[in-house]
Amino acid sequence: MSRKRRLTRLAAVLFFDGFRAAPGWMTLVTVMLVLGSVASTCYPLGYRLLVDGALGGSTSQVVGGVAIVAGLIAIGWLLYSVGATNAMALSDRIAIYRTANLIKLISGVRTLEHLERADYLAQVERLNANRRQLAAAPRTILSNASSMARIITLLVLLGSVSPWLLLLPISALPPMIADRFAKRISKNADDDMATARRLSGKIFELTTEAASASEVRAYGLTRHLAGLHGKLSAQLNRRSGVEAGQVLGVQAVGWLVYAAMLMGAVAFVVLRATDGALSLGTVLMTVSLIRRSRNQLATAAQGAGGLVTTLATVDRLFWLQDHAAEQAASAGTTAPPAKLRSGISLRGLAFHYPGTGRPVLTGVDIDLPAGSTVALIGENGSGKTTLVKLLLGMYQPDGGQILVDGVPLSELDPVAWGDRASAAFQDFARFQMSAVRSIGVADLPRLDDEPAAARALVRAGVPELVEQLPKGLATRVGTAYTGGHGLSGGQWQRLALGRAMRREEPLLVVLDEPTASLDAQAEHALFDQYAKAARENAARTGAVTVLVSHRFSTVLMADLIVYLDGGTIVEFGSHADLLARGGRYAELFELQAAGYR
Amino acid sequence: MSARPTSVAYSQVPAEERATGRQALALLWSASRALTILTGAWVVLSTVLPTLVVIALGLVVAAVPGAVAHGLGSSEGDTLVMTLVFAAVVYAVSLMLGPVGNAIGTAAKARITSDMQARLMSAVSGPVGISHLENTEVLDRLARAEGGLTGYFPGDAPVTFAGILASRAAGVLGCVAVAAFQWWLGLGLLVMWVLVRRFVLSAVLRQATELRGQTTAMRRAWYLIGVGSKVRDAKEVRVFGLADFIADEFRGEYREALATGLPGLRDLHRRALIGFAVVFAGYATAMALIAYQAHAGTIDLRSLAILLPMLAVTMSAGSITMDDITLTWTLAGIPDVTRLESELVEPETLTGTEPVGARPEHSVRFESVGFRYPVGAKDVLSELDLELAAGTSTAIVGVNGAGKSTVVSLLARLRDPTAGRITVDGRDVREFDPAGWQRTVALMPQDPVHYPSTVYDNIAFGAIEHLDDRDGIEQAAETAGFAEVLATLPKGWDTVLSRELPDGVDLSGGQWQRLALARALFATRHGARLLVLDEPTAALDIRGEARFYQRFFQITEGLTTVVISHRFATVRKADVICVLDGGRITERGSHADLVAAGGTYAEMYQLQASRFGGES
User: Fold this and answer.
1) Predicted model pTM
2) ipTM
């Protein structure tokens, strides 16, 4: 990225987006900060007028002095008092804009690498955790600008007394250098304490969360855990005491040097006055200015420090934006077929998760005929879920191709392909909104269509859910926290299944262990109904249904069973074929069947 | 866990329950006497020094004309030099206040935070059961008191409060200094500042608390951020293309939340403008009077040089800063700690003292047990009768939501029945020491606790007093099928099981399930006599499950076992099978009996078995 482009981007994110997000508030805060800096710096100017006027007998000077001091102090107070609130109001409004964009950015990327790859996820999480910094940035910049303005005003006033006083800013260096040392000390301390902090936080969680507290009670571990927590606390208290002492020492030195330099300046002014070079009013003003310069310098140093941490967050944002742009640039543009004719073919498919060396899929080669139901089976880590993610376009294969009626998936428009796919997962989402919407998000243009949602539940084999909700499909679901009706795990699952069935013209339906926690009867009802829906889809659009499961009860209804092991297909065929073959599938089937004999 | 709020509203706290600065200081006092005294000294110095600096510099200015008249070498010149040195020293000391305050803050925060955590842990560990940990009010209080979720920690409250105190006191002292010259002027300024501050502060705090009152709309907005940015819902967000939808919904909810604050914001600005007019008028009057007196010669130069800057110092008595807002936020959690401590006390009727000993010798019985969750509309269990004969295994089956896990939690006294009773060898379980009874139950929950510690410790936590029983731990691991997992771990027994710790690794769901079984078995080796298995094979693959039910008799040998499962291959191994339906036991018997009876159990079993061509 060119330097200029980076600067433009930085300026937009850090500052100008503020005007786009909240023009009125940005203007108000700008005006207030400018006024505030003038007011808080210039009022000693009034002292000079007042003193020299009163002593010299000039009424107009006195009136001017009174008006300047009273007016500027009152303005300073006013802006100070409402400043924090207005800053919050501004940053709230920028936060809306910024966060909405961040949501679009994070969830608009069709692939999952940035949320699943550990090092990428760490970046995204830190970006998300610090997004408030971005919302606060325009105001931070404004207040930095205003403290610069204060310092310049201060220097102009001091320079008018004597050019030597322009050297005063040098005095800011010792405290700033000390501050840098202090930051390093604190960072070291934080690093030292990180593990103990995490552990003691974890112990707190285990003791205070219902699920873990049950087991903690059953094994009588309360006191043991409290003891561990106490030990960790003592360790942390000691370490942070040391940190506090070291930081204090460093900062004290910085400020002492500063005090010496400042008092030197005061002495200089006073001695100049003894030569008769300065009026008494000027002396009073200058001493006042010098005394108050500490506040300006401290604010300026703090503001600059704040921006440095914000810059790291901005870099993460740029990284994510570039990642998203890269993903979008490589996306295809071909529209998917209206109806699948031949089906979906996997050709020499290979994949490893970016950032890891281990291949998850190698040489996967198979045809999933249009209109068929395919079961993927295999043990944990065999690559079933990964294969599903590739089919749904959440990752790009490293080698080989996925062909949709002969067209490579990478050439299809990912959004359009997404619109023709549907899925339910074992770790299904629990969308806390009205039930009709929680289902309807699968078909956003008809989000609130209750009959369509009800039909989806019928297709999913769970129509009874509607009666279980106090206000039917209009019920807002999801805990008191978002103000809705609490659902059981099974009810959430039924909702997720309804969502997966909501699209009426899918080309691909994925069910990745969605019934893992259902009981036998519910599962049976679901599959009876589901088989019917799958046949309807198959007839209408040639849809391929992919089931992931390690339960044979589910697998049995598939037309084609694909047995994955270590990322390759070891066997495939119909249930009867595979049993007759007497291979791995037959062995596992026997193993489970034995439990029922 | 989904019910856990990520942030809690301050405005939900009734006013009479809001903490004061004094309570914050009490917190500091109990955390560290030395730090409290240090804080006190800091407040005093922070009050006095700003005024002293102004006075010292005023004296310097006032000494100038004398030195001008008589030269630097004169005694007047010496006075000037002396006052300069004095001012320099006072100024240097005043600059130390900031760093010292920070140091006190760092040390105090660490201590108070760990103190608060310890108090909270001890408070919630008070009750025998865990139902209080599912109570939204208790959870809200916990979240607020702990502070981590809002980012405002009670640990910061005392020092923030001390800062405000010092700043206001410095302002008041400034007024006193002014009053020393003109009593009515000092008094007038003080009254003005106090009134103006009160007038505006209330509106600022209302804005700071009620606007961020985390109304339902605000919480929904936060929820939506999670949907749009966490991996949790990422797959479905992509499959259904929800990026724009979530962003728009978020924007709508947040805007709605902010809209409620607008009238308050307008009120604040109106008040601030009135305050501005009052301050301007007050200052203008004061200055004009001073100027008049200076002109008339009724106050001398020294007074003038001190009085004028002192007028600005008095502003601290009436200024409103971010600290005022922060203080309210950090104080919010303090009353919650005291409330939790006073409310989470188990009634004596429920805490017997009788030692449990080697029970059960004969049986554990549920006698007409009923149970209803506090927020529930209907009974989960009613008139439930169930006998667990000592030394036998009992399987409980039923559809989702039938109350199977509730039975388990009643058995372990994690909850108490709302009707009926549970007896152990004929005596009410509440007569026994509750902690002792809980130790009699070796509980393997559906979602076992992942202790951030080594494999060895994770199993040893089944009976922590026997940490050095290495043989016992190894044997438990072997029986539970964990030994083969152990072989794959980088450091064997010493492998740390937490990704968040250095060199730590995480186990898969199935591996944790085996470890949890080992933990339970280790507990039974050291006194636990009831083995409770809640869905012990749910996360295991086909081989793991087969291995489990093949070893079922070895695992449960000599114990009184309760197993909950959907997997009939496991269920049928139990001596007695109970069907739980509609809150009571509807069928009871051996596998063969129940299949022959052709009831619900037979139907459920056949549904699964038929897929394997199994007999009925």
Assistant:
1) 0.79
2) 0.84
